[in-house]
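Deliverable D4.2, example record:
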Amino acid sequence: MNVRQHWEKVYGTRAPDQVSWFRPHLETSLTLIERATRGDRDASIIDVGGGASTLVDDLLERQYRNITVADISQTALEVARKRLGKAAESVRWLQADVTQTVFPAHSYDVWHDRAVFHFLTKPEDRIAYVRNAALAVEPGGHVIVGAFGPEGPTKCSGLDVMRYDAESLHGEFGPHFRLVESLQELHDTPFGTTQQFLYCYCAVEQ
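Output generated by the structure prediction step:
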């Protein structure tokens, strides 16, 4: 089973709120996106691995008008589209593997990823991800990545994952990305367990 087939199966067999990473509202992500956009509701935002996440709902509620949701799973995207109803028409939906898709150059002011990067256990996949992010984000734009922290789980959804502290996560991105802030979050899963997330909020050097 390849990576896309794995995630199609996950989203085809589990309800959106019955996966460990589900959170009704991504408060940390929303706070960092608000900081990055400085109130500009026309800022171009891509939610990488957004899938069935409710982040797009909350961004629309806050009147953001330029949103792209990308995910390797078409099933996950359809879950979100169905949930949003007519509001989904104002969002761009992109089925894509972030390690393989070449995004339009300098197209996004904010690149957001919660819980994709830690699944990239192969160095070549992380290199491809960073290369694609560097190309896709406007110089002076921002990258927000949330991954498992040093005390996070070692497996998720049956897959091995990486764990990071602030130095090692930012180190994957390199000097082209200037670290603005890093913070930890304890995420309560739907199953009564707790996962440690580490967020890095970076600015893309001009």
